[in-house]
Amino acid sequence: MSSTASRPPSAPSRKPPGADEPPSGLLPGSFPGTRRPGPSRTPAPGLRTRVPRALLRAAPALLGYAAVRLVGLLVLALWAHRQQHGVWPMLATQWDAHWYLGIADHGYTHELGSAWDANNLAFFPLYPVLVKAVAAVTPGTRATVGLVIAVVASFGAAWGIFSVGHRLHGRRTGVLLTVLWAASPVGLVQWMGYTESLFTAFAAWSLYALLTRRPLWAAALASLAGLTRPTGIAVAAAVSVSALLALRRRFSARTLAAAALAPAGWLAYVGWVGLRLERWDGYFAVQRLWHNEWDGGAETLRRMREYLAYDSTPELFLVTVTVTLLASVALLALAAWDRQPAPLLVFAGVMLLIVLGSGGVYFPRARFLLPAFPLLLPLALHLSRASARCLTLTLTAAVLGSAYCGAYMTLVWPSAP
After folding, report:
1. Is 0.70 surpassed by the pTM of this model?
2. Taking 50 as the threshold, does the pLDDT of residue 12 lie above it?
């Protein structure tokens, strides 16, 4: 996916082993609006050449990703078989997948209503639209199509995550970053009929486009992310902040257009819900019916104290969610200490702010943070410098822990992941 042009032969190499050359003069978190004039360059390879090369470069990461997720699927299948449960219905038709399939089948409601947890306008439209469109031209049920889209999107996300890690710190770090994302405690969601994989794919490639000075591509992908999940505003924030930083140094119409386009998808859906319900705060009224209101983190802190300090027998999955949230805060601090590029920090920071500051339901918050893969970059960097023994033990524990947690949250935990 990279299109870095070759430098004159006399220019010394400054890139880490296995990494692409960072753009000259690119400040963390920003991109120049236009390329500076310079010496003549050889023509960049065509798209037909670049894509196979990039895919070949990402092959170890994609194979590692597939291996981790297949281990998780195998553990789930064995556990489900012992309990006489079918795996496909759990992955393709339950919880949020049920809501998205309902939207694909019947569309959105026209009224706000007063029932709690019952208004499907809370769910963003791109995924169910894709399910409906693809199912119209392919065999199989919409549930099967939705699951296939999620799995395919997960590989697109894994490729994008590798590309970001490879761009910044080399191929080894990119592979480890991808494997760590696959081995997240709730990583099984990546292969369920949910939107996390599709959203992560848009987010990862949008951030990669920022790092490679493609502001309009970054903004277009951010807009698609904004049509996929409510947290798409975090991707838009990363693009818009980078654009504004670039505009402070040099005006560019393309950069300004990127800043305006990035939040367009999110604003379009929120505005459409307002028009449909004939009230300016229509979408936020729907969210209140789902108990999702901003409280600055009061509910989050209350739940953390309850599960870690007061409850003598806390539910295992809720402890996992709590530890994941606390670890995410620590990892964001490490990412800032490591001076990650500003787009990654803004994206992860806004994601974490949304998840921690919401007064809504607590148990799916680890899943809500699944797309925030830049939080794992400090771990990937540390492991890239670790001994082979430490690396093997850490990854083995992460993969087995993810497999167990995925099966537990699906077969034992009584509510949504």
Report:
1. yes
2. no
